[in-house]
Amino acid sequence: MKKRFLIPVIMIFLLTVFMIYKVYFMERNYNVIIFTLDTTRADYIDTGQGAKAKTPVLKNIAKNSIVCKNAYTVIPITMPSHTSIFTGRLPYETGVFNNGENYEKQLPTLAEIFKKKGYETGAVISLGVLLKEHKLNKGFDYYSDDFSSAFPSYFLNAETITKRGLSLLKKFKTKKFFLWLHYSDPHEPYAPPYLKRMIHIWLNQKLIAIFNLYNVTPMTVKLDLNKGKNTIFLTRLKYLRGFLAYPLKIKDLKILAKEDTIKLNFYNTKIYNDKKLLLLNNKSYIEIFSPKKQTVTISFNMGPNLIESFKTKLYRKEVEYMDYKIGEIIGFLKKNKLYKKTVLIFVGDHGEGLGEYRGNFGHIHFLRPQYIKVPLFLKLPSKKSMIVNNLVSTIDIAPTLLKYMRFKTKHLNFSGINIFKINSKRTIFSYTYRPESFFNGVSIIHNNFQFIKYKGAKSFEEFLDLNKSKGYVLSDNIINNVRYLNIIKKMKKTAILKLRKSKRRSQTGNFSEETKKILKSLGYL
Questions:
Q1: Cα-based torsion angle of the residue sequence 364, 518, 374, 460 in order, rounded to the nearest 10 degrees
Q2: Is there a contact between 58 and 326 (Cβ–Cβ < 8 Å)?
Q3: Rounded CA gap, 461 and 468, in Å?
Q4: How many CB atoms lie within 10 A of CB 310?
Q5: Model's pTM, two decimal places?
């Protein structure tokens, strides 16, 4: 009788133990997608409190996510930033400081960790600085970095990334998967895809070529020249109100001919830097004198010479287009009943200057908030939504994700911290490095104060009170305010120590000719 009674009791006990183990200790089997949003500022992604761009897809996901309101990248340079995201380490620990450098260290990446756990792993990248030759493909079964459809460009827009991402998802949908999707539409030049085919080039009143304005790689056109005078002019299709008022910017115009006898004359054109930069308006044209009838090739880089407000408007349009295309990925997950089974992480690899500071558009060189503050939110199945106001770094993603998945991480010794363990006293650091940057620089943020030290040909320091300003403009620098003297002194001492500790210890920064071509095509050189 006692045995009969004990058997169900034991069964219930074992079942209870198993359920406790499953709920609190057993590894989770969720799929994972990491969306890295290249060149995306935090204030342009709506996570529920409004933003400078309309991003309804991301806003809807953020409603049920862990939203980090004060997240910062460790470096405003694409390749080292992504290396740090996927390893949970700082740039001087990964050995990757600039674009064009390779990840040679043996620190495991997230892809390698998930692959060992039996996951199918895949990546789709949109910029040439992340080509597999730079070795961030470690652990990926599939690494989509084919730019042949965009040649000679090394940029792929959101339409292509989403299409390739959906293709991988169709392969993966019956298996556990870890997927990285890299979107970079907000990267310069700011030009949503509807700007296609807007530049028409005419030779002797005959249409000979049509170009997309956003293609910053060298464009080439064959010219069938008559003997004597030939005339080239360009026409532009209007794509946004006011565009026709802005001149076209032509850089590095070259004529490739067997004989060096071709002569060029420019009319109604502003010429700078010994013809290396031309500004063409609607009345501009070029006369080419050829000693004979021949076919030659011209090459050049082209883009609009826009005013600040117009560039900012285009940047916003790029962010909104990216949001729309990400929506197609989300739609697929929901349609195939994968959405609730998938961890979604959205993070900017760095921000972007939009002219507020020293008139600078771009990133890399400076460490003000617009360059390093990024959107970061995580949709974690079974985890309630919450707002994290404490300081968060992009190196916190790896330890947070692995802890959530209940993978063993003690042996990994991340530099990042589990987001759920961060307290209000945290200090975070960001860096930038020569030769790609103007400086070796370090940023320290603590208690909403930011101290920045730049070391280079023109070294200088900045101190910002982020409680009182966004820190975007030059006048926000209060380095000489005696009220903050003690804070500045402490942070400066730390900055000097950090610069010494974080200095480049590997890789020379010398790039191959192919790498230089890629960097130049993306506006980095």
A1: 0
A2: yes
A3: 19
A4: 17
A5: 0.86
